[in-house]
């Protein structure tokens, strides 16, 4: 009798395990974010929705968006995270509108029309300075400080044709300081193949100044490089949101929506600020209490039209290329 009882218990345990396994749902995330950022999302998801397992596919945002486009007839991904308006705007057909349960905490001015995408974090454009490389030059405090010919070869920016970061920065400067001033800047800058090369170039002393996103430059300050300073220009700077989207026909169904809500949650956005220095899109997180970054209220922001940036991308790239070619001569 004892043998039969043990056997019955084992069968019940096996059945319970099989049921639990069957109830586990997998959500596939396509992401251009670093591993520590994805891990922060996965950890929060494990706490808030333990029945959902996150499977991540990583790569460049453009590559992943084109992959989603190619898979439209056989959808594999559930969520995409993240890229800027001027990039995701060309792939609207691959996504479905979703009004996240967390949307009320996100300022309306940051949102994408019709909630086709949702802003997951906000990037602030800064001047990253290596004070050891300034020589006799004073640290820049405004964008127009960088137009002096004395800065030629000392400034680096990412190629806007290959980097959405580079495009966002140069488009914003074009709208903020005007074409003639942008020509002067083009004569002074070196152009790198990627945004990561901008930060590393300044950190290693190849350049005195880099035009960068706050979240990409701040790790060097946090890492103890005392010569690295982030300048929030006195004449104003601009911001851009990084968007996440729910893939049209997402095979994860309701589980994909739950995972999306977790990505937008206060817990996740706090964890992303702590681990990756991603400034939250939510308005209910006090950034300066978590990391040594200023509150948005302390930053002078110049508004830019993200839709115009997306619509006029090709036109602006041709203009910039002509400026850069003229500046190189």
Automatic annotation (TrEMBL):
<dbReference type="InterPro" id="IPR026045">
    <property type="entry name" value="Ferric-bd"/>
</dbReference>
<dbReference type="Pfam" id="PF13343">
    <property type="entry name" value="SBP_bac_6"/>
</dbReference>
<feature type="signal peptide">
    <location>
        <begin position="1"/>
        <end position="22"/>
    </location>
</feature>
<keyword id="KW-0732">Signal</keyword>
<protein>
    <submittedName>
        <fullName>Iron(III) transport system substrate-binding protein</fullName>
    </submittedName>
</protein>
